[in-house]
Amino acid sequence: MTVKDKIILGIDPGTNVMGYGLLHITANKPHLLAMGVLQLDKYDSHYLRLRRIFERVISLIDEFLPDELAIEAPFFGKNVQSMLKLGRAQGVAMAAALSRDIPIFEYAPLKIKMSVTGSGTATKEQVSYMLQNYLKIPKEDLLPQLDATDAVAAALCHHLQNGRPQSEKQYSGWKDFIAKNEKRIKQ
Hints:
Elements: E1 6-12, E2 17-26, E3 29-39, H1 46-64, E4 68-72, H2 80-99, E5 104-107, H3 109-117, H4 124-134, H5 147-160, E6 169-171, H6 174-180, H7 182-186
Parallel strand pairs: 1-4, 4-5
Antiparallel strand pairs: 1-2, 2-3, 5-6
Helix pairs in contact: 1-2, 3-5, 4-5
């Protein structure tokens, strides 16, 4: 199946560092448009960090006009407070996309790694290496923070679904989000 030309924004959410990557799909082939990180650990306030995430995602959407957002889902770790903060960061990035009517596709970290490297247990370095080779990214363009390549990996994972997203959750806008989360919203 051939995918029409489109732009996919990938986000690796975080409250210390948020990674982002944009792929332009032309003739079903991905090309890296941009990648980077938003350094958040310089802000003391958690709420200010969330605001910066929202503002940066909005600015990326306004600059690159992505057709879809692929975002890494938070995974359950041992530290509940860390997971809560990560979930908030993810939610704020999703809200930014929803505010611009960008469809959202959420992928588990294991699925992203599996799509890019063939192994769900791949390291961040292995993901970065595979992306560098697959997308022909010059070594000097890679950032020291692997959050950027993790975000590109989320976008590539979404593209590799080849028009058949197998996202755990997807939303086409606010109404769709509310309809799919009715029980959570009414509580």
